[in-house]
Design brief:
Blueprint: E1 3-9, E2 23-24, E3 27-28, H1 29-38, E4 44-48, H2 51-59, E5 64-66, H3 74-85, E6 91-94, H4 104-112, E7 121-127, H5 134-137, E8 144-147, E9 153-157, H6 172-175, E10 179-188, H7 189-195, H8 202-207, H9 211-216, E11 221-225, H10 236-251
Amino acid sequence: MKIVAIIPARYASSRYPGKPLADMDGKPMIRRVYEQVEKVLKEVWVATDDRRILDTVSAFGGKAVMTSPAHKSGTDRCREALERVGGAFDVVLNIQGDEPFIHPEQIRTLVDCFDSSDVQIATLVKPFRKEDGFEALFNPASPKVVLNNRSEAVYFSRSVIPYVRDAHHSEWLDRHVFYKHIGVYGYRADVLRRITQLPQSPLEKTESLEQLRWIENGFTIKAGITERETIGIDTPQDMEKALAFLRRQAGS
């Protein structure tokens, strides 16, 4: 099975312009993401819409490709990058450019989902823990997912799903295992081409979650379960927390 990892990275961001190039103790964030993925896979590419990001990746010896600034999602950017890179890849991984702490074990878990030939799309989920607090469970910025008995996603939502009837919400984490969605994906190459041709769906527009478009159109999404937390960086304040975490790691 031939696998390529693509890291979508755009320069413009309303909350954090230039985020991929933000310094993380001597390395731009995009380099830290790239190096984590490179621990597992040989074929790693950054897909960007900005020459500054492309030049930065090239300067540290990485591979990068320019893509259109018009893409609305990382999935769309991965599709164009796949066509530009070429090569007969079976599976494409979409690793977000703001996940500098993604662990090699998580990438392997995503890859392992494709050991089954019937898997079309894969992603990662993590159980919410009681110590995370109820605020984490009810945070709409942290999508939840319900799985069936084949570890396939039934539905994703910004709301808490499922609803635990006849119990106060303070008891919910004792009554049920809730799953947090970790936003990295793997796709069969032919499936990636198909899903990026689909128009936005009603559920996708309602929840602002692109994976609902795929479910509405009959595609299945396999979920690999990870116990590791990730630290996504959306704002300069998030970066401050990430740098503190990085320094604690270096000192341990």
